[in-house]
């Protein structure tokens, strides 16, 4: 799979991995890597600006909290983020259904 | 010096912007690199190689710094736009307050009337544009990516606004009270000082672009 195609959906992928629980940056990147089967292929440091951008947009909330005895910045999905994720999922299903129908006819 | 310490020093040197946010970003990077190093150490790497691998996966400073710098630039732009918005919104209230207003009749003359109208119009434009820039650099990220161009536009607009407002203030004071010291003192406190703060903030934002 082309990593560029996955990167274009980075925002949605990040929102999806913090959907179930608040996570700190490293845990988010680990979850992204695990769920993508290691296909994302991004320098991990480039995910942090994306987290800050999503926070500015109001899709993520963040707090400094103590995890495993260390202070970490932890990100959680906001109400606006939950709605945005639901919208992205809907758009993705519609898109993949259309492409699937067309490609399936060959 | 470990690979992580060297890397963080290089990243720090590559970044310009609000000190607190820069510290937060570097702390997050340090946390990540420590976690990644611990993961590789558990997988059997010796500490030096674990740290080197963590740094390599994080990305080179050239790959990572532009994203971090954009975060700093947009944050600085929000601060500048917020200052401009707040100071310009407060102007009519301050000028109308009993502490500043002497109750004297508005000076006559076509020049003063023109300047009075000009300050009203430019004030409204400044408030509207500053509010728009605040939104663009904030939740505007839902629809488009506010990058360094937005920071550049904010810095430029704030710089021009601060000079323009201060200039109109000087012209109005000259036309209105002439050389009366109180008028100039009020102008300095109510317009000069806030606009100087906006200009300094704009200059700092410009440095992040």
Please specify the SSE layout and strand pairing:
The complex is a heterodimer of chains A (106) and B (209).
Chain A: H1 3-7, H2 10-17, E1 23-24, H3 25-35, H4 47-56, E2 60-67, E3 70-77, H5 79-104
Antiparallel strand pairs in A: 1-3, 2-3
Chain B: H1 3-14, H2 19-42, H3 47-58, H4 61-96, H5 110-136, H6 148-176, H7 181-208
Helix pairs in contact in B: 1-2, 1-4, 2-3, 4-5, 4-6, 4-7, 5-6, 6-7
Could you explain how this protein is built, in words?
Chain A has helices at residues 3-7, 10-17, 25-35, 47-56, 79-104; strands at residues 23-24, 60-67, 70-77. Chain A is of the alpha+beta class. A 3-stranded antiparallel beta sheet of chain A has the order 1-3-2. In chain A, strand 2 and strand 3 (70-77) form a beta hairpin. With 209 residues, chain B is mainly α. In chain B, 80% of the residues lie in helices and 0% in strands. Chain B has helices spanning 3-14, 19-42, 47-58, 61-96, 110-136, 148-176, 181-208. The longest helix of chain B has 36 residues, at 61-96. Chain A binds chain B through residues 24-26, 29, 42-46, 48-50, 52-54, 56-59, 70-73, 80, 84, and chain B through 24-25, 27-29, 31-32, 35-36, 57-60, 63-64, 67-68, 70-71, 74, 137-142, 145-146.
According to DSSP, the number of beta strands of chain A is 3
Sheet with the most strands: spatial strand order of chain A = 1-3-2
Which ranges of chain A are low-confidence, i.e. pLDDT below 50, for 5 or more consecutive residues?
none
Question: Which residues of chain B form runs of ≥5 with pLDDT under 50?
Answer: none
Rounded to an integer, what's the Rg of chain A over CA atoms? 15 Å
Mean pLDDT across the residues of chain A is 87
Q: Name the chain pair whose interface involves the most residues.
A: A-B, 25 and 28 residues
Taken as a percent bin, the fraction of beta residues of chain B is under 5%
Q: Give the ordered list of helices and strands of chain A.
A: HHEHHEEH
Shape of chain B: elongated
> What shape does the CA trace of chain A take?
globular
Tally the helices of chain B: what do you get?
7
Q: Helical content of chain A, roughly? A: 55-70%
